[in-house]
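Q&A log
Question type: sequence-to-structure
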Amino acid sequence: MIQSVSGNNIYYNHVLQNKNTASNAVLQKPVLTKKNKFSLPNTTNPLIIFTSLSSNDKEKFLYLLNFMRNFPISVNSEGMSVSKQLEYLLRNGKLLSHSKHDNSTTLDNLYSIAIKPRAYNLDQRHLISNVLDVLVNPRTVTQTFGDIPEHEKPTILASLKSDDPIKKDPSLMDVNASGTCAAASNEVNLADNYPAEYARWVSELSSAEKTLYLDINLSSISKNPLEAIQIINLLEAKKTDINFQKARIKVTADDNAYIRAQIQNRYWDKGERNVADVLIQSAIMQLGSQNTYNSLSDTRSGKFNSNSQGLIEIEKTFVESLIKNKEITSLVYQKIDDEQNLLGYNCSFEKMKKHIKDTIDAGDDVIIGYVLTNETSGRTASQYYNPKVDGKPNKIINGHEITIVNYKFDKNGNMIFICVDTDDDNNNFVEYSADWLLPKIHHAGYPAYIVEADEEEIMRNSELIA
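Response status: OK
Response body:
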């Protein structure tokens, strides 16, 4: 939910209260239509692929098969056993995909989870199953917090400091509508496009050290090294080493994330975040919020967000740049006044469409922040809403972050965006027509080179409030 808007700086904190209210927002059964960056022909015999593996990789693969033997089929696995999931990931190349940060493979990191002790005795087999589920189906990522059983709460409360607000008000632990949509969207992007890195995040964050390191090119933050260093300092990222070319960033989840992880390890229910979701989303929230996030209450402080939940656009873009280790430009498309009215746009819808299409064609996803106004949703929905905005104020009432993973065209040649929404309580893709979604996009993040030709124009227009 949008708590405040100041000029064109829009704050996304909660989730949409009116989910998928547009008549043309159609949910469908999951069909993976996106071109897989690591795809191999479906007719490829996995045995042929297996025999081509190095002896070291064969040993790791067989070890995992044995380690996960007789593990129950996960409800998030589309009916696939662990062996079938491993075969699927081997067939499409994701199992041997390499991390850009340390060159480890997905297989390496799954193996590491299996052979090394986990923090707080988190169940290794459950963690491996979590990773496999998400890598096979990134749309299963959710931001829905699980409930904490009443009999567990006294132990949790006893572990907190005496001045902790949760100790005075235990109901703060009962998170109904989470503010982790930006973090969950980054998680979807990790799993969909960087499978080895996704597995590495889970492996390192669940390890005894509970620490992940990102080796970052400063150029992924800014072309100006001094400016990049200033941004790192401003966002208070934990750096262990830095020069004018590279920086090593230390990433940790907050301590309370492991309380959540242990609860989900023992009491997970369908539709809730699994342990991998908890750790990755908590670490992203911590990294983006200047290390102020509290996983128990889903709240943060920090210097940028005036509200206690979520990440704002600047924070989300910073994290996305670190994850991908390439410069991400966030374009703000909408003109919004101080009264939270949508007044217009900083470029044409055709340009917005091209930015999204070009990014997906280049092999990446697009994380967008979109809004609903009182003219387009809820009780005041109007069939006469003009998506081009005809000069009349459109009061913004909700905002949300989702991930566009692909596009297609209907029989009439109209573009449709295929998306993953981590808060729709559905493991299927959601499809939005471009005509419906484009007028609602407030901001979106792109590789800088894709949008550099339009960035100056959009930034200039954003300063002119109609």
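Response note: Confidence is low (pLDDT under 50) at residues 1-41.
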